[in-house]
Amino acid sequence: MSFQRLFLLATPTLFVLIWSTGWIAARYAAPFADPLWYLTIRFFLAAVVLALFAVLVRARWPVDATAWLHALVSGILLHGIYLAGVWWAIKHGLSAGLSGLLAALQPLMTAFLGPWLLREHVGWRQWLGVVLGLLGVIAVLSPKLMASLEPDHPLLWTPLIVNVIGVMTLTTGSFYQKRFLAGGDLRTVTSVQYVGALLFVAPLALLTEDLRFDLRFETYAVMVWSVVVLSIFSIALMLMMINRGEVTRVSALIYLVPTTVAVQAWLMFGETLVPIQVMGMLLTAAGVYLATKKA
């Protein structure tokens, strides 16, 4: 089996493992930097790095103004509004676990919209997988949900709503990417997308934040990880999967993210995993298998 074939088979696993670290990065950086200003720096660095790489390898850039506009708009949706919503919500008190649960709304939105927007066929097996995946995610995060109902852990509605809006734009951006940019070069398209995201978050940061960015190891470490691994490598994996397969099957992988975050928190921070969470992980895995299995 060739290396390329092995890489394609491992792509979904790599994507879930890397994508899930975004919530940990947001929580880790929250005390040391304003979220929108942090994302402004992140998007700028990612756009520059990718643009330089594209020039070095002579990658094909969008051919006309329409293609550039599509890349900018998709960048605002996939990166700008989505990540701004998640990072802002976590900075303002929403737990990383609950934010991860909200990400699981994307497969449901995608399954509902896919048949109409992209004429994708969603069979009963995929629908069953979507439902099982959502139930599994709820089981995994049920202890956090119950804790949020206690008097000393109130549910913060504004961050919750902002996070939901971010998830909705990620879903919209996935369809937009599949519809208008499926044939573009990922190296150049992604660079332009980060320019679009930058144009969205930078004015918001300048208008609403103090532009705080503490010069310490934590902020630098999270920035390097966010730019190189999250903003470049994981996004390349996601766009590659969107271009190669149906959006509904790709988005179903998001169901595995909250479970993976829970495991990472257990390994890194010693958070406990109760039996219902383990059962939820197994249920989620079964749901993703059904939702992503081709007939």
What is the number of E strands? Answer: 0
Anisotropy-based shape: globular
The helix count comes to 13
Provide the β-strand percentage band: under 5%
| Integer-rounded radius of gyration | 19 Å
Task: Report, as a whole number of angstroms, the end-to-end distance.
Answer: 24 Å
Percent of residues in helices: over 70%
SSE pattern, N- to C-terminal: HHHHHHHHHHHHH
Largest sheet: none
Low-confidence stretches are none
Average predicted confidence as pLDDT: 80
SS-based class: mainly alpha
Describe this structure in words.
- There is one protein chain.
- Helices cover 79% and strands 0% of the residues.
- It is globular and about 50 Å long.
- The model has no long low-confidence stretch (mean pLDDT 80).
- By secondary structure, the chain is mainly α.
State the gist of this model.
By secondary structure, the chain is mostly helical. 79% of the residues lie in helices and 0% in strands.
Topology overview:
Blueprint: H1 3-19, H2 21-29, H3 35-56, H4 65-91, H5 96-103, H6 105-117, H7 124-148, H8 157-180, H9 186-208, H10 217-244, H11 247-252, H12 256-269, H13 275-292
Helix pairs in contact: 1-10, 2-5, 2-10, 3-9, 3-10, 4-8, 4-9, 5-12, 6-7, 6-8, 7-12, 7-13
What attributes does this structure have?
single chain; 295 residues; mainly alpha; 13 helices; 0% strand; globular
